[in-house]
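Letters spell out the chain; backbone shape is given numerically. Both lines appear below:
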Amino acid sequence: MCSITCSNKVSLIATRIVTYQVKQQHWALHEIADKLQLQLRGDQQHTITGIGTLLDANSEQIAFLANPGYRKQLATTRAGAVILSEQDAQSYDGNCLISSFPYVSYASLADWFAPDVPPPSIHPSANIDASAQLEQGVAIGANSVIGPGCRLGRNVRVAAGCVLESNCSVANDSIVMANVWIGPNTRIGQRARIHPGAVLGSDGFGLAWNQDHWKKVPQLGGLLIGDDCEIGANTTIDRGSIGDTVLHQDVRLDNQIQIAHNVEIGAHTAIAACTGIAGSTKIGAYCLIGGACGIGGHLQIGDRITLTGMSMVTHSLHEPGNYGSAIPAAPEKIWHRNIARLRQLDKLWCKLKRIDK
């Protein structure tokens, strides 16, 4: 393994030579079609310089249609081209790229127009322990701290103000954005993306009631985050009390999520903002969890389960499908009427039982 320790950090900064290529910003439609392997209908030479919405795009921008709710905007869009499904393309006369999954194709195209990543460097104010190992292409921002025994893989980027405590590892091509704290013995896989303010591997909420006061339970486990995971801004993930908290491959977490100690989340599961998951719950693969859900502790959530936003889960769910418990918003008069009837539900039930007898 080719690695760099803190002892030669100064020479690394002085001698590193980086090849830095500015992204191309002008694309002919036939180039886009070839690279994305999409069918093109229309002017092959038409030039695209950016991306816009169906409503706001100009003739040099490309748009996409993935949500049927925006289909009516096709008739008035000024976009130079649109990424469409085959069905939607039948009713559109302009330049279009036909895709089985328009949103996925848009995501691939958006990478081309994303801001350029600056060349790797290590800021002079970074505090890197002498025992830390940094592979080639690592970038570390101002005032970041890399603790003893840490290992940063190839092309890892740690932005300003981050703290990596002892024995952390971040694998190749991962990005740790500004002001992230990573606790001891946390392991992060390849191509992970950690957004600003995240706290990874903090103490779990372990307390034991000792007659008349709480006694803290030491949290002895770690945190394991798999390849291709994304952790949203200000999300908190506790390390295990005994054993590890585990996020498997390609887990996607939104902002401001709380994951307690010893939770396990299966591969390809996505969780929206402000959800809280209590300790030792296991969530399966390919699950979709809406915003502001509350999931109790020591539960089992099976594979391919969807929870609608603001649902409360108090027992295990095993069968794939959609679940929900939140009451959707309604006009105020209807809401008050429904709540009044809900309060009478027990009396009505007792009355029905008496009639039945």
In short: DSSP finds six helices and 39 strands in the chain. Confidence is low (pLDDT under 50) at residues 1-22. The CA atoms of residues 277 and 284 lie 13 Å apart. Residues 127-323 form a domain with the UDP N-Acetylglucosamine Acyltransferase; domain 1 fold (CATH 2.160.10.10).
